[in-house]
Amino acid sequence: MKGIILAGGSGTRLFPLTKVTNKHLLPVYDRPMIYYPIQALKKGGIKNILIVSGRGHVGHFLELLGSGKDLGVNLSYEVQEKPGGIAQALGLAEDFADSGKIAVILGDNIFQQDLRGAVKSFVKQKEGAKIFLTRVKNPRSYGIAEVKKGKIIHVDEKPKNPKTNLAVAGIYFYDSHVFEIIKSLKPSSRGELEVTDINNNYIERGQMRYEILKGWWGDCGESFESLFEASRLVSSSKKYFK
Question: What is the CATH superfamily name and number for domain 2-235?
Fold first, then answer.
């Protein structure tokens, strides 16, 4: 199983911090943001990792991380020529995935849960996908899952009238069919290929499983407040983030 970290985007919500650098290179407590998803994958037993970044900043990632040797992983890099959505960025990883299962993390998401058990469980899962849900105070800001009788029946992207407060966190496990799904997607009203459409495709196939995230979760790219809160949470959990 391989790992993919999506670290593109323009970071407009964190401007002017992102005027001259990628948001995933901003500090969260005592290290760059991108270190946390790398660490999460490594703890989950995944050491072959692809970082997808936009033009203009991929050299900064390479300068910081190199081959990944110092962090105990093997890093590869891919460039997203222009912003086209999470699903479009993920589509660039098809050759890297090499027809195998993948773990995808949004580079601005930090979470406390150890992924080892979830990775082992998904490797045994015959087909399909798995997403991770967490309860949030502001469900209008996220993709929100509607769950009935232990199954996800739909994910609504930033709903005006949320049916639950179960947000889809920025970590996704997919089988190799994800790339066929991406090729079938049409751009949303934002002109992007949406990860929510990938997830709903798996749900419609009856191949989506889910897990409730344990511990805290932080979306560092949502706002200055969320970036600050993530630093505070990491600071209070230093034993976990050694």
Answer: Spore Coat Polysaccharide Biosynthesis Protein SpsA; Chain A (3.90.550.10)
